[in-house]
Amino acid sequence: MIIRNRPPLSYSDVTPRNEYLNRRRFLAGSAAVLVSGAAALRAAKLNVASKSPFSTSEPLTPFKDVSTYNNFYEFGTAKDQPSQLAKNFKTSPWHIKVEGQVNKPGVFDMDAILKIAPLEERIYRHRCVEAWSIVVPWIGFSLSELLKQVEPKSTAKYVAFESYYDPKQMPAGAWAGISFPYVEGLRLDEAMNPLALLCTGMYGETLPNQNGAPVRLVIPWKYGFKSIKSIAKIKLVEKQPPTTWNLSSSREYGFYSNVNPQVDHPRWSQAKERRLGEFLKRQTILFNGYGQQVAGMYNGMDLRKNY
Ligand SMILES: Nc1nc2c(c(=O)[nH]1)N[C@H]1C(S)=C(S)[C@@H](COP(=O)(O)O)O[C@H]1N2
Ligand SMILES: [Mo]
Q: Separation of 24 CA from ligand 1 center, angstroms?
C-alpha cells in the first residue's frame, strides 16, 4: 500500500526501544534488572511508505540470524561478537558530513536524512564474499536521492564513504587486523544506480547496532563488504578512492567486487553459497541476480581484471 502525504518523520519519533528501556530502567531504579535483555536489543518501528518493485519474493532469512551472524569488525571478528559488543554503541545524535566535488556540501543529522525521501521496504539478497548469503527486508531509499540534493560537480567521478570509528566504543577493533575508520567507494554511476540503497532499517524497524545503525549502504549486486555500516562521511572525489579490504589484501579484494561465480577468491571458490538456515549450497548468480539493472554499467569491462 502506498501512503501519500506521509507526515514528516522525526528521528526522535523513533527513539530506539533500548534507549526507551534504559530511561525506564533509570526511572524504575533497582527493579530495572527485571527488564529482559532480549527486548532491549530490538529497535523502534519505522514508517514505510511503500514496498519496492526491486524486492525479491524469496523467503526472508529470520531476523534472529540476520541480527546475530554479523560482520562488523569494529566490534570483533567472530560472527556473534557484534550483537554482543555493539549493544551500547551510541547512535544518537548522529550526522553524516557530505563534502568534496559538490555544489552544496553539508551536514545531515538523522532528521534531515529521514526527510530526504519516503522510506521504502526493499527485500534484497545479500551475498558475503565468504560465500554465505541472506535475504533481508531492508528499509531506506536510493542513495541517489541524497547525492542529487548535494549536486555533484562534473569533476565528481567516484563516491568515498567512511564509517564512524571510536576506539573507546569499539575496543575489539584493535585486534581485527584491518585499519579503521572502515572506508569504501563506488563509481558515481554505481552510486546513482537506483538499486544502491541508503539504509536506515530492517524488518520494519530501525537498524540494530550490529547491522550498521543508524545508517548504512546496501549494494546488493556486490559482495557484502561494499555495504559499509554506520556511515559518518561521504565525499565526492575525482579519483578512485581507497577501500578497506583492498588496502588489507589487494590480490583478494578488488575495488569493484561485483558478485561473480566465475571469478574465484584466491583461497576459495565463489561458484556456490550457503543461504543461512539452508543445508544444501546454491549456485551463486552473476551480479547476485541483479544483472538486468546493473550489467550495463560494466559493458566492455573485463570483469576478471576489474574484480
Ligand atoms: N564499518 C563496517 N562495515 C561493514 C563491515 C565492517 O566490518 N565494518 N563488514 C561488511 C561485511 S563483510 C558484510 S558481509 C556486511 C554484513 O552486514 P550484516 O552484518 O548486516 O549482514 O557488512 C559490511 N559492512
Ligand atoms: Mo562480507
A: 31
